[in-house]
Write a structure and sequence with these properties.
There is one protein chain. With about 260 residues, this protein is an alpha/beta fold. The protein has one domain: NAD(P)-binding Rossmann-like Domain (Rossmann fold). It has nine helices and nine strands. A seven-stranded parallel beta sheet has the order 3-2-1-4-5-6-7, sandwiched between helices. α5 links the parallel β4 and β5. It is globular and about 45 Å long. Bound molecules: NADP nicotinamide-adenine-dinucleotide phosphate. The site of NADP nicotinamide-adenine-dinucleotide phosphate has 30 residues, from α1, β2, α5 and α7.
Length: about 260
Amino acid sequence: MSWQQSLKNKTVLITGASSGIGAAAARKFASEGANLILLARRLDRLEALSAELEKQYHIKCLPIKCDVTKLAEVQSLEKILQKNPVDILLNNAGLAVGTEKIQDADPADWELMIDTNVKGLLYLTRLVLPKMIERDSGHIINIGSIAGHGIYEGGAVYCASKTAVDVITRSLRLDLFGTQVRVSEVSPGLIETEFSLVRYKGDAVKAKNLYDYTIPLTVEDIAEIIIYCASAPPHVNISEVVVWPTLQAGIGKVAAKKQ
Ligand SMILES: NC(=O)c1ccc[n+]([C@@H]2O[C@H](COP(=O)([O-])OP(=O)(O)OC[C@H]3O[C@@H](n4cnc5c(N)ncnc54)[C@H](OP(=O)(O)O)[C@@H]3O)[C@@H](O)[C@H]2O)c1
């Protein structure tokens, strides 16, 4: 018998499923037979992914346009979730915007990072938790970052937001003490996604150079780890997985790949 529990017919809600880690996790959960509720702002991408996964894996997929920074939009999901109780919430939507030092940065960038990475995660968590507690089962998986365990120049607010994700994750386990609701965090180092394109505000050359220089993690690596956490037996709560590319030894310490 396998150590891992089956994810077949579980309902998994993934934020930020239109790209990167979220889309890869959706593919992996679907391949395990889970049904999906996919959120992001770019509905066209969610719809295309949903159609692909329903066809390939014969699962149910619900693509929903939702900006996680908007509390009213998040709360309006309540009816849908009453019909589709969530077994696993993957709080993945997130971003870094800009690389300026505090003295030069645009406060609008700070607001976007804090609203998405911290408040969005809290809004979704608040929405699904009461039902999980009522059923005494469920799993919240938060995507943190190595930026939640260290700092770098020009990264103050992103690092602060990911430190907040770490603190919220650990606090949540205390708030849920005595229940069988699990809370995990996956904290990756450098992964090739659209993340850098967003951070560099659309500068595709800069974003590509960052990844071409070295051997970053892939979204499939992270999806595997998420599935590992989610499919652990119900009495096992993997608190955090911190994962680095082999060529990365610290924040800002990334080695070049050999030519
Ligand atoms: N890439 C890395 O090196 C790295 C390392 C450590 C941690 N992370 C974390 O991994 C997570 C996923 O990022 P990624 O690397 O996969 O980047 P990505 O490819 O840019 O994906 C980010 C996702 O978040 C969604 N999103 C952003 N703002 C949103 C909002 N207001 N409402 C709803 N969805 C929103 C985006 O969808 P829409 O634009 O369609 O809304 C997109 O699907 C983030 O939390 C990030 O901080 C990334």
